[in-house]
Design a protein that fits this description.
By secondary structure, the protein is of the alpha+beta class. Helix content is 47%, strand content 12%. It has helices at 2-18, 35-49, 70-77, 94-101, 111-115, 117-123, 152-155, 181-199, 203-231; strands at residues 55-59, 87-88, 127-129, 137-139, 156-162, 169-176. It has a two-stranded antiparallel ribbon with strand order 1-2. The protein has a two-stranded antiparallel sheet with strand order 3-4. The chain has a two-stranded antiparallel ribbon with strand order 5-6. The chain crosses the membrane at residues 209-227.
Length: 236
């Protein structure tokens, strides 16, 4: 038992050490039933995230669940010779990634379940310029992050401002990107929406199935109750 507890703590330490617990996370405005948002998020994921991060537990044809056809998936979201039934893998070798970034980029299949939607939403909006870092970027949510800000052309460049009196930190947009702050927030919301879907693609279906099961059990309870009364009506 003691060995199991130590093992769990050892697995959790890297995550606890990396996260900046002093930062308040913003609420991720996601909607799992908004297929347009999920489709935009999938496009952002494929164009910006899938270059380094794999999603080895997600197949392209699973995108049919968000309203895309095989033809749309092939023409808009697949840029290699992959088949629609293949998983979302990357060509980058793990050894190369580690030499470039210092760590191997994690698989993002279930990242939304591991981190939470609010964490990812806040993280992707909290990059700022930091010349002391190897990539030139740092993050207010994940201090000393190894990942560069791949979406900087959309968001622009933020700088960190520290209030000497209150010792509070805030990010200020120093160089605008091609999107307005509101547009960038929506892009990240769509991306997080997709990541949440990817982590649990059957979640909405399971919810509906659960409601049907509860309705069936409720109906069976009523029928069983009246059947019991009928069987026992002559017994005193």
């Amino acid at each position: 038992m003691k060995t199991k507890i130590l093992l769990v703590l050892a697995l959790l330490v890297p995550f606890l050490a990396a996260a900046n617990e002093g930062v308040k996370l913003d609420h991720a405005p996601i909607d799992p039933n908004n297929q347009a948002s999920l489709q935009r998020g999938a496009k952002t994921f494929v164009n910006y995230c899938l270059n380094c991060h794999s999603a080895a537990y997600m197949r392209y044809n699973r995108l049919q669940d968000i309203g895309l056809t095989d033809a749309q998936i092939k023409s808009n979201l697949m840029f290699a010779g992959d088949k629609v039934g293949d998983t979302m893998t990357v060509a980058m070798q793990k050894t190369e990634a580690k030499s470039w970034f210092g760590v191997t980029p994690p698989d993002l299949s279930v990242e939304a379940r591991a981190r939470g939607a609010d964490w990812i939403y806040s993280y992707l909006r909290s990059f700022y310029r930091d010349d002391t870092r190897p990539t030139g970027w740092n993050n207010l949510v994940y201090e000393k992050v190894a990942m560069p800000h791949v979406l900087w052309t959309l968001q622009g460049e933020q700088v960190l401002k520290v209030d000497a009196k209150t010792e509070t930190h805030r990010l200020v947009l120093n160089k605008p990107g091609i999107q307005t702050p509101a547009e960038y927030d929506q892009t990240i919301a769509d991306l997080v929406n997709y990541l949440v879907f990817m982590a649990e693609p059957y979640k909405e279906r399971d919810k509906h199935l659960g409601l049907l099961v509860l309705a069936f059990l409720g109906l069976m309870f009523v029928l069983s109750y009246y059947l019991k009364k009928e069987f026992w009506k002559d017994i005193h």
